[in-house]
Amino acid sequence: MSDTLSNKPVIQDWNEDLFTAEEEEESTLLPLYLRPQEPPPGGRTYGTLSWNRRSRCWVVRADPSVTEMCKRLFPGSAGSKRGEARFTGHRRAVADLCWLMLRFPLTVKLADLPLWDKAVAQARAYAVRQERAARMPAKADPPAGSFAGQLMEFQREGLAFLLQHDRCLLADEMGLGKTVQVLAAVAAQRLFPALVIPPPHLTLNWQEEALRFLRVEGRPPRVHIITGLKPYDLPEADLYIMHYLLLRGWKEVLPELPVRCVIFDEVQELRHTGTEKYSAASLLSERCEHVYGLSGTPIYNRGGEIWNVINILDFHFLGDWESFSREWCYGYGSAIVARPELLGDYLRREGLMLRRTKTDVLKELPPKRRLVQELDWNDRLYARLMAPVIPQILKWKTDTALTRQEKNLLEETISQRARQATGVAKAPFVCQFVRALLEGGEQVLLFAHHHDVMDIYREELKAFHPGFITGRETVAAKEKAVERFMGGKTDLLCISLRAAAGLNLQRATCVVFGELDWSPAVHAQAEDRAHRIGQQDSLLCYYLVSPAGSDAAMQEALGLKVSQFVGLMGDRPQTQEEAEAAASAARRHVERLAAELEQSGA
Predict the structure, then answer these.
(1) 3-state secondary structure at position 291
(2) Residue 582 is inside which H or E element, if any?
(3) What residues pair up with 125 in beta bridges, in sequence order?
(4) Which residues of 256-292 are buried (b: 16+ CB within 10 A; e: fewer)?
(5) Which fold has domain 139-361?
(6) Burial class (CB in 10 A: 0-12, 13-18, 19+), 484
(7) Cα(350)–Cα(352) distance, integer angstroms
(8) Residue 467 pLDDT > 80, yes or no?
(9) Which of 82, 326, 493, 541 could form an S-S bond across to 485 if both were Cys, CB 3.0 to 4.6 Å?
(10) CA 34/CA 120 separation, integer angstroms
(11) CA dihedral 21, 22, 27, 30 (to 10 degrees)
(12) What one-character-per-residue DSSP string does 360-399 give?
């Protein structure tokens, strides 16, 4: 038997099971070229249509007049051979083929007919979904019983966008709440179990956010953080979290996980192909119903990078690499997009991307926003740094011969050593967070307390040529650091928490606290180095905290709650009462350390 249907052309999908009564009700939403068509009289065909499994594309073999028409009408239609044109397997490309076949009927290879039926059904479903999306409300709210939070107006628009599109990129500028919007979408559609792929330093923050906002059948979600490169049997959970560095170890297992939704946070991590990480992400994305990418820094200028990212979210949405580089870049193989603004408009128009900047939604934002974000940390390093402090804690607890003054001095030493150990243990993760801000075009003031912590920042962030004001510099060096930052020669200025008095640094768009102080007023003074006359933007102030160490006690003293905007800090000097409260908080911290030491049996 011939491997083609030679008796009559297959123009569309004639499988009645694939076009049910329910679909007939939706047929009015279909464009004419995707509706079932009668075969043309005489049954003339112009060539054949087959599926190339290696290249994952549909191949038209026909008269040169037909294939030349394909390449002229459809930029995504590739193929260097005469009489041959190739279309990617994307739903939109299949729709283009259906339109073409109204004018030039093609014979589908018999072996590929089931694949073609399925592809046409998917193209129809996609077209219906896109049409419905255009008619849906511009704003949405998650169900009250499944989401414990309230969205701003622009976040409600973001939720509506995510509900309308099952594979898309939420590219809001950093600080506009991409996490909360995508969690609202998961809750609204009950996309459990879901899998989140964040950078390593944001793993704990995703766990905190999920527990805070999501509700599953009236309870907080079951969250499991996947650890290690070696796969293991996963417990039942509503949300799994696995950072990018683990993808390569779980590559073969991920496609078999029963997850309905995958969220790639900071999806620009996948801008380079040829790695096991990228391959694993691609296999996972292919198997999921919903794929959401989050990034405040979508890559436009380097075509190869944005093409790679979009391929993870929706394979061949931008066609294959040859056709993309030919039409969007400076010629075959070029990695530079010729008109980035046109590409951005196209992605937005086609429903693949939504991006808002702080300027777009400034009226909805308070002038100064505080976000507390929990980072990972090196608990083994913390334990090693605290080992020499243990004898001091025991002495403080048991030595009754100490005078009050001696005990106070020892108390201060213990508290400082614990704060320093905490700062050092989380410093590399703070640097990862700040690096993401800088790569996103932010101008950052990074505050810390200890010189050892500053030294880590200096080494880890040296590629950004930061300025430093730590109390160790001369007056001239301090002035030069300020001049470099305000003059745009560097976007990062590292400042000691209590060395920022009198500075005007309103060029900053973000303030980051890599370490905390006991006094709210110290933080307020540091924030207001940027939040001054001349600051036109809504200022983001990030408090980066570790899951243990001294940060827990300091958060309690400051009244900070993870991922909540807080407003207790005023723009005023520290009062005597606040100074006494800070000292009392430090004392309680040492008491807590002593209690933990006693519980551990040390």
Answers:
(1) strand
(2) helix 576-600
(3) none
(4) ebebebbbbbbbbbbbebeeebbebbbebbeebebbb
(5) Rossmann fold (3.40.50)
(6) middle
(7) 6
(8) yes
(9) 493
(10) 8
(11) -140
(12) TTGGGS-SEEEEEEE----HHHHHHHHGGGHHHHHHHHH-
- 225-229, 253-257, 336-340: range with lowest mean pLDDT: 336-340
Judge whether 508 and 526 are in contact, CB under 8 Å. Answer: no
Is the model more confident about 69 or about 600? 69
Whose tokens are 């905490």? That residue is: 422
Q: Bridge partners of 224?
A: 240
**CATH code 3.40.50.10810 region(s) in the chain:** 139-361
User: Tokens in use for 188?
Assistant: 């609204």
Q: Which CA distances in Å does 513 have to 323, 428, 461, 524?
A: 46, 14, 15, 11
What stretch(es) of the chain map to CATH 3.40.50.300?
A: 368-600
Q: Which amino acid is at 9?
A: P
How would CATH label the architecture of 368-600? 3-Layer(aba) Sandwich (3.40)
Find the helix or strand (DSSP H, E) in which 370 lies.
strand 368-374
Residue found by looking up tokens 């128009």 in the block: 349
Write out the E strands in 181-229: 194-197, 223-225
Query: What are the angstrom distances between the C-alpha of 181 and each of 42, 267, 369, 519?
Result: 55, 16, 17, 33
Dihedral of CA atoms 241, 247, 251, 254 in degrees, nearest 10, equals 10
**Predicted TM-score of the model (pTM):** 0.73
Angle between the N-to-C axes of helices 178-189 and 153-164, in degrees from 0 to 180, rounded to the nearest 10: 50
* pLDDT tens for each residue of 203-216: 988 999 999 999 99
Q: How many helices (H) and strands (E) does the chain have?
A: 19, 17
What single DSSP character describes residue 330? Answer: S
d(CA 526, CA 448): 10
Please identify which residue in the block is written with the tokens 């628009």: 157
61-70 pLDDT, tens digit per residue, is 998 888 888 8
**Residue the block writes with tokens 């924030």:** 527
What the block records as the tokens of 303 is 């075509």
